[in-house]
Amino acid sequence: MAATAPKAAARRRARTCQGYASAVDGAGNYDSGDDYVVEFLGYRFSFNAEDFEQRVTAAAVKLGLLGGNELDDDETADLVELVERDGIEEPRSALGRYLVRHWDEVSLVEGESLVYWLKKLVFRGAWLDHRVKAGKLEVGFDEEVADFSYRDPHGGRALLELLPTPSWHDRQYRR
Description:
The chain is an alpha+beta fold. It has one domain. 42% of the residues lie in helices and 14% in strands. It is built from six helices and six strands, in the order αββααααββαββ. Helix 2 packs across helix 3 and helix 2 crosses helix 6. The longest helix has 20 residues. It is globular, with a radius of gyration of 16 Å. The N terminus is likely disordered.
């Protein structure tokens, strides 16, 4: 049975109450430049263009929307517009046209919003990087799952290990 959007929102609120997002402090705002300034969950993050484009592309790959991170400039511009403006007004690429044409099928998976999750992964990555640079998290690489892990340098539990992500593999853009 597919989850409804209200149920998905309730799950997000429950995760926040469990401490996944509530541990972000005021110093959690991220700044790598001023090409893109985006707000998410009450935080304001500013990015230089290259940083934001790489983070958006990586988020789309992690969710399974893309099979890899090799995009041309127009594909990148469409994906960035989707995350920055919550939609694509005039697609520049086949990827953009695919997203606009199939939006009803692609925008939600089991009640989870594609735009929400792209933003969440962009912001989570920036927040983690910020915390690592501030010495508040240590990063490691888990060879078994081929993914990074984060731990509290003082021995506390990692905040984001338990956060599952929905999958867009079945709706993946293919060239």
